[in-house]
Hints:
By secondary structure, this protein is mainly α. Helix content is about 80%, strand content about 0%. The relative contact order is 0.11.
Amino acid sequence: MNIIKKILELFDKVLDVVLIGLFSSMTIIILLQIFGRYFFNFTIMWAEEYSRYAFVSIIWLGSARAFILEKHIIVDILVEKMPERLKIYLNVFLYFLIIIMLIYITIEGIIYSRFYWDSYFYSTYSLKLGYAYAVIPIASILMILNTFRIIFKKCSANSLKINGERKQ
């Protein structure tokens, strides 16, 4: 179990590094574009397009990271007033609904990515658009895995809490 935890921590760190790399590169390219245009009368032809797809990738991959940190917005006014056992069942049910939605997004993302697989970026004819759209199914799969991690974490923590209440 300890080795799985270390693998998952490494997985989270790699995702953090990818997000930091995407954000940093997007920022640097935009700054170079601004300085190049205003001071040197030179534009980077692909800067706007790269920034757009990097931003979309940051949103999708950041959403996958936010899942495991449980940083998404949630309205839990009614859930907090429920008994502990009912909270567990409701949370697991809601997470399974999320998984079903993410499976649908993954399938549609694969279809969309395959549709654009042979198309090229508008400003650069060496990179395919399919790579940019592949972030949708990849991030959806990451969100599914992170949702299972949350379910496992919540169920094991809550079962310990409920079992601890029974002993007293």
